User: Which sequence fits this backbone?
């Protein structure tokens, strides 16, 4: 005696948020039933394990049927197969496109290719995210990437409109797309302490200030590619370290401003030239794709690590960078103020975000 | 050429990719009606084509308009090979043929393919221009309205109920034609879908003609069924109740009594061929098995309503009634004379009754498919009548002369009619027919409730109830009148215990009452109701032909008897005394029969309290056995006590001051408040109880079930033990849930707007080859119980909620397979209010539910003052006048009823309090509705579906036409589609989607009286194949929030106060 067929279909599609999460997390039906049993849902309604199993299977089936629609969320709103109230639709979409920070941290900056997809089981094992869930998240990244790749207009806005995501999630996806497109290196050991949110913040900064879209907002790929002209112009900044006078002048201006304001003053004074060289060299090399990829590792190696070993506080860092940036304006022989601001604005906020344990 | 059909193809969206190379589709559309086909241009390389076609015009007969569907086929253009079909949409034109229904069909329809399911959507516009046709001999019946709803639709008034209409058409099943061997499954499925659509159209048209002949303009309670007889053919049959309906426009007065139908009488005479009338039913010839158990089955009662002088109304024999025919004119003249009518009510009534009987008997079948009625329509209820017959199918030779099938049903109907007569009743209400087919054997079943009806609706010339009303005012209050026995006490058709009505103490009532109808809204009920099911499996030997049929028909009576015993036991176990909505299904398989009886149990205040259940051992002396019996007895007693608490059954006589005791308390309190000179009810009840006891003694000789009070179950063998165990294994519904199979749950009145309709199907494979009956019963019972448990669990977020219209359908699709399909609706209600109500009522002495109870003491009061039982003019007079003035404000029957209740009360009690109460209610409701509304922001219209005739918190403002759809889905990649469950899950979801799309295209936002009438599922897992047929029906409607309307709130829900209605009256 066995249940051969068992279905339950509501005119308004019934979806249990808890089961949806279990499904998204890649639990098998049986594991999901176990989790639900432990969650105590049975006592709530005098249900038995059979009832729970049947309910879980129904819900899983519903989700599987919906999955196709979730791939192009705009369809969910005008499809006729499932009658789902709009607020529920929004929840479904948002949850479907949600991702695990641990997982995305592993994939960030990698090429969204078949090769990466093959490594998903390793990533799954490492992060504790089920393979099924890894696949879903990876496919989501890839899908969003493919769609926005060909679109004009601001990246975040495109993602939000095409995938009906919340602003926060759309920004995160923009970061993922941006990282994947520029293949930023994020996996090195030295970068391990950085969270996805740190990178997402930096990505936002880069998108808003360094891309083509920052100056012209109607070009293709405007938010995904860095502004080549700008990168070229960055070479001009080299004068700040190659010109001895300028370097000394800059140092003295900064030191005057900092003196007495921080305990780390001595270290700052001693390291000034090194640090300045580090930052300017990063700027000068960004025309090479290879060096763009190493942007974050360079920031950490050339700037953050020396500062950390000198035990600068976050406040010290803020103080230093503010004065470092502003002092350049007073240098009369330094003509590249606009480029300097565009560069340092981003560097400053990225380093602020990245300077933690 | 009386009609022009116009169609325009606007656009498509979400089309499937048909060209792998380009990942696109070159789509075009063929629009076909009858034999004419138009094509759109090809819209190249697009999955969202815009055709914006011209108007395609079809000039057709209205007959074809009724029969044929508009067929829209979407294809992919292919230059080199044949064009590939993407899918089809069948659009039923019928709703456009009735001026009162929809005027245009416009919207997105799912493109459906029987192999692939839904493949995108297409936007279509359809209009019809009808020319007036004066041809008297026309074959079409455009304009006759059809309703699935089994009550008078909410925005109509029944000017006249003409009665039973039936028709059937037969054809060869395309699936079994020779050509099926060479065509594709898709072609075969489409041929079948199209044929059934055509047949339904034809059937509807033919029934419409009959209705026109009778002088009616609508069919209510339209029930259409398919019999897939396999080799021998395909039968589509339908029954319904012909009515003349008047539209109630909310502003205008409905009482303009100009709805005369001069030619009604001749017409109806003509169609009830008198020759057939006298014919005695003939059965017993072939393999006809007559109805169920000899006892209470067809019985179960009500009393004669006639006042004492006429009280023992003769059992209505054919002779007496026919001799009354010449009297039939008298009441009419009497009516005309006006004035003194009130006093004459008694004798007049009797005359009228005889007259109706005559009127009804002139009809071949005085059957009504309605299950709830305008107030006053139903006078007495006799009990359930049913008949079954086993037939052997053979090929239908001439589809144009479906005589055999007609004769079979005729036979069954005659039997039903004679059963009703035996119960002293002249009509059958809540009537339905069904079949179960296995190979060549077919069980035909019919059942209904024997009843006596008020003549008012049956005769022409007195259609306007407002004027005639008071003269035929029931001497017995509506809250119990229908329970009074219709048959002669001394000449009972079956043994039963009669007592005086516990409500009015004047007429006799039976100890239990079984019916197939809904609980009349005016009935007085104690506590809440609940779903009661009896389930039964019986193994039978595999056999062929006549041997098989004989075996089945031999088994049937035993099954019915056992089902009935189970129902009775379960009813007692819940301490209830009446069943409503009883539906018994017996399904036949190759090696077993399945029986499932579902009903809603209630405690009718008017009926005596059920005695307990007593267990008796056959072998006294055996100590261990006696011990065992004692434990069982204790368990039973505990269950009864628990159930009483659960369903809040505290009959009046207990007088516990528990705030949850609705009726008892209310009666008490109101009496005190009113200060009427009624004797203390306690005394009265005692008085009458002694009476009833004596009558018990008289009838005790006849009792089949033993002692006075307790119902004795004898344990003599293991079977009996099993039975008792199964009795006790029904799990109680979890807290916060109620369930019933009637429209609404007796005892719950404050519905909120949460509605979730669902369909669930389960198929069980019996692996154990040598199962016993007992084992099978257990499996079947568990299957049903587990289904219910699943529902409760899934719908737990809706608590407090009630599952209404739980409709179980069982089938044995194959040997060793049991299939149960359930459709129901879960509705939320406001729990707090339920709890507050009694207290509130007690203080304010005038809220909705009290009305029923209030009427009781008032009636008593009248009785007390005029011992002769004539309604005192003070009471019946005052409300009448108010009634007339307020009548134009009523938009539904229910409301009218409630108004009456209000006004009657008004005669002696203050009602201000009910106005106070009105304010919190709409507020709460609107809040919940608003939240609902915010959902509707999407681009797809939200279409609610419900098997009930209404949606709580809303008012139906327009009926757009009947929805009757038939779909086939087949797959040869079952595993890829998620196995059988995945396949059926998506198919059911697709069916819902297509129903919703059609309703939305008609301009509607809801389907009421929705039902899934057929769900035939076949699988062949080895071949990776499955096929399923689903037939659904319902009424497409537009409804608006109750709070959105003009000053008049319509009483969509039983028990909600009609506060503004009362406003109007004042």
Assistant:
């Amino acid at each position: 005696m066995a249940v051969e067929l068992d279905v339950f279909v509501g005119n308004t599609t019934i979806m249990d948020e808890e089961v949806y999460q279990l499904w998204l997390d890649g639990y098998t039906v049986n594991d999901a039933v176990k989790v639900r049993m432990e969650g105590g849902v049975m006592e709530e309604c005098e249900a038995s394990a059979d009832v729970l199993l049947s309910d879980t299977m129904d819900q899983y089936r519903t989700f599987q049927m919906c999955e196709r629609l979730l791939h192009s969320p705009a369809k969910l709103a005008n499809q006729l197969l499932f009658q789902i109230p709009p607020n529920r639709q929004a929840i479904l979409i948002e949850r479907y496109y949600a991702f695990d920070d641990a997982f995305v941290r592993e994939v960030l900056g990698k090429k969204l290719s078949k090769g990466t997809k093959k490594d998903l089981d390793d990533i799954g094992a490492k992060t504790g995210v089920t393979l099924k869930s890894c696949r879903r998240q990876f496919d989501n990244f890839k899908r969003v990437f493919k769609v926005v790749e060909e679109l004009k207009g601001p990246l975040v806005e495109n993602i939000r409109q095409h995938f009906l995501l919340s602003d926060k999630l759309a920004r995160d996806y923009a970061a993922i797309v941006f990282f994947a497109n520029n293949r930023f290196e994020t996996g090195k050991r030295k970068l391990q302490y950085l969270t996805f949110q740190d990178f997402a913040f930096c990505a936002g900064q880069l998108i808003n200030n360094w891309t083509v879209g920052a100056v012209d907002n109607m070009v293709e790929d405007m938010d995904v590619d860095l502004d080549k002209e700008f990168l070229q112009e960055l070479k001009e900044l080299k004068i700040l370290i190659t010109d001895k006078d300028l370097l000394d002048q800059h140092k003295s201006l900064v030191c005057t401003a900092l003196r007495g304001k921080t305990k780390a003053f001595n270290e700052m004074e001693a390291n000034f030239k090194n640090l300045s060289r580090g930052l300017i060299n990063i700027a000068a090399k960004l025309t090479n794709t290879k060096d763009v990829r190493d942007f974050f590792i360079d920031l950490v190696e050339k700037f953050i690590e020396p500062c950390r070993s000198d035990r600068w506080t976050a406040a010290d860092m803020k103080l230093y960078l503010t004065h470092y940036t502003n002092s350049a304006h007073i240098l009369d022989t330094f003509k590249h103020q606009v480029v300097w601001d565009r560069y340092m604005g981003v560097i400053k906020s990225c380093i602020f975000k990245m300077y933690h344990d | 050429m009386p009609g022009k059909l116009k169609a325009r193809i606007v656009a498509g969206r979400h089309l499937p990719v048909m060209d792998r190379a380009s990942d696109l589709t070159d789509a075009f559309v063929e629009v076909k009606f009858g034999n004419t086909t138009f094509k759109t241009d090809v819209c190249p390389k697009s999955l969202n084509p815009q055709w914006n076609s011209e108007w395609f015009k079809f000039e057709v007969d209205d007959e074809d308009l009724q029969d044929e569907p508009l067929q829209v086929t979407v294809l992919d253009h292919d230059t080199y090979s044949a064009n590939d079909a993407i899918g089809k949409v069948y659009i039923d034109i019928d709703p456009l043929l009735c001026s009162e229904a929809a005027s245009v069909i416009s919207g997105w329809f799912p493109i459906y393919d029987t192999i692939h399911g839904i493949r995108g959507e297409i936007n279509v516009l359809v209009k019809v221009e009808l020319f007036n046709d004066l041809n008297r001999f026309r074959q079409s019946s455009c304009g006759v309205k059809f309703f699935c709803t089994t009550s008078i639709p909410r925005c109509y008034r029944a000017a006249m109920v003409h009665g039973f209409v039936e028709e059937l058409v037969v054809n060869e099943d395309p699936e079994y034609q020779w050509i099926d061997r060479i065509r594709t499954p898709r072609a075969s499925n489409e041929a079948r879908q199209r044929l059934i659509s055509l047949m339904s159209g034809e059937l509807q048209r033919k029934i419409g003609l009959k209705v026109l002949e009778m002088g009616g303009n609508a069919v209510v309670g339209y029930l259409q069924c398919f019999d897939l007889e396999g080799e021998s053919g395909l039968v589509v049959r339908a029954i319904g109740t012909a009515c003349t309906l008047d539209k109630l426009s909310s502003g205008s007065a409905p009482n303009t009594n100009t709805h005369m139908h001069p030619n009604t009488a001749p017409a109806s005479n003509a169609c009830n061929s008198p020759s057939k009338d006298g014919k005695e039913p003939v059965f017993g010839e072939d393999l006809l098995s007559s109805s169920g158990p000899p006892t209470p089955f067809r019985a179960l009662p009500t009393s004669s309503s006639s006042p004492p002088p006429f009280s023992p109304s003769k059992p209505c024999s054919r002779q007496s009634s026919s001799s009354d025919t010449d009297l039939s004119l008298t009441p009419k003249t009497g009516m005309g004379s006006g004035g003194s009518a009130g006093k004459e009510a008694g004798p007049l009534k009797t005359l009228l009754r005889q007259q109706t009987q005559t009127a009804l008997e002139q009809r071949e079948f005085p059957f009504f498919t309605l299950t709830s009625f305008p107030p006053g329509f139903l006078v007495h209820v006799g009990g359930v009548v049913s008949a079954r017959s086993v037939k052997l199918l053979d090929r239908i030779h001439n589809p144009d002369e479906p005589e055999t099938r007609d004769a079979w049903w005729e036979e069954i109907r005659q039997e039903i009619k004679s059963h009703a007569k035996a119960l002293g009743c002249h009509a059958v209400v809540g009537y339905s027919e069904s079949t179960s087919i296995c190979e060549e054997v077919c069980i035909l079943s019919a059942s209904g409730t024997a009843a006596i009806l008020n003549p008012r609706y049956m005769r022409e010339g007195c259609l306007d109830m407002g004027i005639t009303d008071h003269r035929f005012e029931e001497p017995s209050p509506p809250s119990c009148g229908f329970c009074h026995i219709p048959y002669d006490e001394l000449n009972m058709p079956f043994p039963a215990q009669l007592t005086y009505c516990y409500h009015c103490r004047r007429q006799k009532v039976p100890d239990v009452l079984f019916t197939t109808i809904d609980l009349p809204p005016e009935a007085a009920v104690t506590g809440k109701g609940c779903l009661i099911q009896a389930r039964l499996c019986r193994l039978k030997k595999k056999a062929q032909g006549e041997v098989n049929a004989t075996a089945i028909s031999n088994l049937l009576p035993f099954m019915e008897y056992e089902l009935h015993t189970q129902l009775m036991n379960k009813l007692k176990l819940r301490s209830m005394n009446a069943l409503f909505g009883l539906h018994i299904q017996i399904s036949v398989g190759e090696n077993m029969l399945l029986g499932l009886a579902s009903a809603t149990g209630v405690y009718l205040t008017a009926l005596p309290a059920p005695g307990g259940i007593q267990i008796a051992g056959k072998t006294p002396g055996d100590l261990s056995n006696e011990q065992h019996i004692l434990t069982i007895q204790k368990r039973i007693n505990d269950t009864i006590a628990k159930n009483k608490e659960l369903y809040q059954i505290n009959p009046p006589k207990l007088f516990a001051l528990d705030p949850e005791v609705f009726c008892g308390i209310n009666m008490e309190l109101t009496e005190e408040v009113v200060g009427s000179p009624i004797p203390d009810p306690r005394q009265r009840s005692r008085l009458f109880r002694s009476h009833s006891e004596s009558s018990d003694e008289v009838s005790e000789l006849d009792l089949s079930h033993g002692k006075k009070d307790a119902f004795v179950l004898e344990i003599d063998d293991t079977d009996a033990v099993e039975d008792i165990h199964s009795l006790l294994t029904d799990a109680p519904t979890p807290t916060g849930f109620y369930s019933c199979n009637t429209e609404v749950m007796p005892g719950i009145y404050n519905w909120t707007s949460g509605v979730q309709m669902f369909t669930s199907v389960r198929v069980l494979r019996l692996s154990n080859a040598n199962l016993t009956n007992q084992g099978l019963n257990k499996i079947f019972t568990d299957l049903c119980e587990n289904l219910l448990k699943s529902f409760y669990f899934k719908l737990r977020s809706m608590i407090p909620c009630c599952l209404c219209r739980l409709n179980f359908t069982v089938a044995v699709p194959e040997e060793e397979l049991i299939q149960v399909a359930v459709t129901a609706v879960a509705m939320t209600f406001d729990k707090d209010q339920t709890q507050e109500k009694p207290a509130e009522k007690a203080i304010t002495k005038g809220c909705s539910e009290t009305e029923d109870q209030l009427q009781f003491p008032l009636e008593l009061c009248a009785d007390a003052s005029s011992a002769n039982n004539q309604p005192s003019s003070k009471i019946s007079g005052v409300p009448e006048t108010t009634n007339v003035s307020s009548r134009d404000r009523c938009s539904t029957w229910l409301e009218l009823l409630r108004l009456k209740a209000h006004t009657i009360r008004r005669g002696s009690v203050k009602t201000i309090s009910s106005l106070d109460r009105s304010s919190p209610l709409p507020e709460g409701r609107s809040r919940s509705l608003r939240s609902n509304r915010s959902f509707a922001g999407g681009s797809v219209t939200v279409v609610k579906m419900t098997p009930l005739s209404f949606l709580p918190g809303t008012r139906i403002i327009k009926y757009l036409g009947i929805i009757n759809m038939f779909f086939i889905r087949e797959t040869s990649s079952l595993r890829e589609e998620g196995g059988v469950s995945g396949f059926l899950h998506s198919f059911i979801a697709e069916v819902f989607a297509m129903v919703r799309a059609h309703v939305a295209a008609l301009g509607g936002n809801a389907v009421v009286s929705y039902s899934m009438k057929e769900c035939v599922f076949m699988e062949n897992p080895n071949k990776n194949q499955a096929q399923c047929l689903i037939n659904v029906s319902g009424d497409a409607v537009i409804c608006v929030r109750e709070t959105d309307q003009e000053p008049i709130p319509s009483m969509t829900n039983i028990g909600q106060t009609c506060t503004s209605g009362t406003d109007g009256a004042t």
